[in-house]
Design brief:
elongated
């Protein structure tokens, strides 16, 4: 795997908090106005009965902020970057500004964080003509001939791990899911996905922040997963 070719295709962070009032149009307009002040540009908004989505579209990348009413006094904010054409540092800084505005409109200090998660999907160039070949032969030390039992060519495949928390009672200890696969739209690339889920509810002593969650996942990819696959 050619680690210097890393390109993020998805960065997301998600929080479910209670008790928070339902998202309504008037407060969402305040939220949008403050986003503009914080220089978070948006291009359009969609309203459905239990979800409001705020978008920023550009030719090759997008930002989506989802505000969801998931139950009485239970609210959810999801921040998603698709094919971001800027650095992780810029993404983290934007997440920080978005959540700062969110907390100005709907303060989360002293509320209960029911759960949270963060997901990063990224691509790397393979050192082989087909990324599955690199994973199968170089990392798993298997023979290509063994795949002939399936009776047809392998279009793609990979590895999946589900790792539980080491301490189920520690709210800071997440469950982790990892996928390492050949990328079906371009078989020369290795697709890596890491999702961290913090499932245990916790009382927030301060407002929610997202930078440390994204940084935790990014560090895990850059160190643990990259070292597992092997670097060239």
């Amino acid at each position: 795997m050619q680690v210097r070719t890393k390109r993020n295709i998805h960065v997301g962070v998600n929080f479910i908090v209670a008790p928070l009032p339902s998202f309504d149009k008037s407060n969402v307009l305040r939220f949008q106005s403050q986003l503009e002040i914080e220089k978070i540009e948006t291009t359009n908004v969609t309203y459905t009965p239990n979800q409001i989505s705020i978008f920023r579209q550009s030719p090759n990348s997008s930002l989506e902020i989802r505000l969801m009413n998931v139950g009485p006094q239970v609210s959810q904010i999801i921040i998603l970057f698709a094919n971001p054409d800027y650095s992780m540092e810029v993404i983290e800084e934007e997440i920080d500004r978005i959540l700062r505005v969110f907390n100005n409109v709907w303060p989360t200090a002293n509320k209960q964080l029911i759960s949270s998660d963060s997901t990063i999907r990224t691509l790397y160039d393979s050192t082989s003509q087909h990324a599955f070949q690199e994973l199968w032969e170089n990392r798993l030390n298997q023979r290509t001939e063994d795949l002939s039992i399936f009776g047809r060519p392998i279009q793609g495949g990979g590895i999946r791990f589900v790792l539980p928390p080491l301490n189920q009672n520690d709210p800071n200890d997440p469950s982790i899911e990892v996928k390492i696969e050949s990328f079906l739209p371009d078989s020369r690339k290795i697709y890596v996905e890491a999702q961290f889920v913090w499932k245990n509810p916790v009382l927030l002593s301060s407002n929610i922040t997202g930078i440390e969650k994204v940084q935790t996942v990014d560090k895990y990819i850059n160190e643990t997963i990259v070292n597992f696959i092997g670097v060239n």
